[in-house]
Design a protein that fits this description.
Strand content: 25-35%
Number of helices: 8
Shape: elongated
Radius of gyration: 20 Å
Number of strands: 14
Helix content: 10-25%
Distance between the termini: 32 Å
Oligomer: single chain
Length: 291
């Protein structure tokens, strides 16, 4: 994700100096379609062009003009909050990976896909007419609290340095990762209009909504996949209040939205210390910590 430019060094403009002086975290809106890495590279290119760095190509640059990373991959088909670290803020991104996140997911009963979402191929169809709202609400209790979850095969998890999803697309045989402990703080059924249903989820790090919906379908003696997925909150950053849309990706807007940190302001990477030591976001009233 780090980049460089062409062989010709660009002059350090006032705007570039201000850009390179940024240190902290902020949130952007990731739309459906591109990968999280693609969105981050587009953001970097946009900011570098504004700073006067021409012909920027963040995937090919060798000189790193701007230190930037994101705090947790969103699937290509998903949208919502993507937390970005810039400068020393990249050292705080691990708190975003392990911290609390909120999602709104639309699932579809009766069809299972190989990717567990709507981008995949349907591999199974089952009856779903027997499922009631009460049935689903009762089964959701099984997936609340500290649970064990098997990650999807199509995921950002790696084997021998390569993502499982990439290996599968190349035709390699991939074994499922073992079940691992994850935490679901809250899980509520918002809408039930079979075959579709809508869930609100708050969870900790390492949790896969696609696996939840797949497991829920099986628990209801049917099958299901994720039709739509939106991350509505990550850490202190909410979709409504903090996520900058692409037309807002300017130095001025990011400076105004930045959750500042200094080189000496690097705290522990545990979720607890990220909550207790977090600074108030610009324009935000102090809120209680997430569970």
């Amino acid at each position: 994700m780090a980049g460089s430019l062409s062989n010709t060094a660009a002059p350090i403009t006032s705007s570039l100096a201000k850009l390179q002086a940024l240190n902290g975290l902020f949130a952007i809106y990731k739309k459906q379609g591109p990968t999280s890495a693609d969105v981050l590279n587009t953001l970097k290119d946009t900011l570098l062009r504004e700073a006067g760095v021409e012909n920027s190509n963040s995937r090919k640059r060798k000189k790193q003009w701007l230190k930037m990373g994101h705090g947790g991959t969103l699937d290509s088909a998903a949208s919502g909050v993507l937390v970005v670290g810039v400068g020393n803020g990249t050292k705080q991104l691990s708190t975003m990976l392990t911290g609390s996140k909120k999602y709104r997911a639309v699932g579809e009963l009766g069809k299972a896909t190989d990717t567990l979402d709507a981008t995949g191929t349907v591999i199974m169809e089952k009856e779903f007419e027997h499922i009631t709202r009460l049935d689903m609400e009762e089964k959701l209790k099984m997936f609340t609290g500290d649970i064990m979850q098997v990650p999807p095969l199509y995921s950002a998890l790696k084997k021998d340095g390569q993502r499982l999803s990439v290996l599968l697309k190349k035709g390699h045989q991939v074994e499922a990762k073992p079940a691992r402990p994850v935490t679901v703080y809250s899980l509520t059924l918002q809408e039930f209009q079979p075959p579709c249903f809508t869930l609100d989820i708050e969870c900790g790090g390492g949790f896969y909504v696609r696996s939840l919906v797949d497991d829920l379908g099986k628990a209801l003696a049917s099958c299901a996949h994720v039709k739509e997925l939106i991350r509505t909150k990550q850490g202190q950053f909410t979709l409504q209040d903090h996520a900058l849309h692409e037309e807002q990706w300017t130095l001025e807007n990011i400076r105004g939205a930045l959750h500042h940190c200094t080189e000496g302001d690097q705290r522990s990477n545990s979720p607890k210390s990220s909550q207790t030591g977090a600074q108030q976001l610009p324009g935000e009233k102090r809120k209680s910590s997430a569970p």
